[in-house]
Amino acid sequence: MPYKEKDIEKKYYSIGEVAERFKVATSLIRYWEGEFDIIKPKKDKKGNRRFTIDDIEKIQLIFHLVKEKGYTLTGAQEIIKRDMHKVQDKAAMIQRLNEIRGFLTEIKNNLNEQHTE
């Protein structure tokens, strides 16, 4: 059995990497940081923000509420204050289902390509 190297996972992500992940501007991430108390990235000596996986998950929650569900910032803040864990679980489930859909679509496309060859 061949040796498989363990994937190296980053501990910190730059604001540019986070913005790219959500396909939004870095200014929106900075704005949300000011509006939502749950986003607290660490800053290095130069003042650059360093986001952890936990920070990214919280941004995912805000993104889900504001961009996907259409809540106002005030509405999203209220939901986060009231039922953060419930909404986090639901958002994580939706994200996982979207990943599964993408995987199944990829399989379907590969099968269609093989069938047409």
UniProtKB/TrEMBL annotation:
Residues 12-82 form the HTH merR-type domain. GO terms for molecular function: DNA binding; DNA-binding transcription factor activity. It holds the Pfam family MerR_1. Keywords: DNA-binding. The keyword DNA-binding applies. The keyword DNA-binding applies. This is Transcriptional regulator.
